[in-house]
Amino acid sequence: MDRPINAMEFEGEFSSCPRCAYRDGFHATFRQDGGVVRWLLTCPSCREVFDIGLTVEPGHPGGNKVLT
Ligand SMILES: [Zn+2]
Is the pLDDT score of 61 beyond 80? Predict the structure, then answer.
C-alpha cells in the first residue's frame, strides 16, 4: 500500500468518507504492526485510506485448523 494513511479520531460512527462523502462502506486492509494487526479502511470511491484505531490480534484461520 503506497497511499498515505489518514489517522482519524473515531467519534461514534465512521460510515462515510471524509474526503469524498461516499456512503456505501469501506474496503478493509490489514497490516501487521508489531504484535497487532491494524485494520485500515479504504474508500472504494476515492481510494483514500483511513486508520480509525481498529486493531485485531493475529490468530489462526478457522480456530486451530488451517486448510491446505
Ligand atoms: Zn472517498
Answer: no
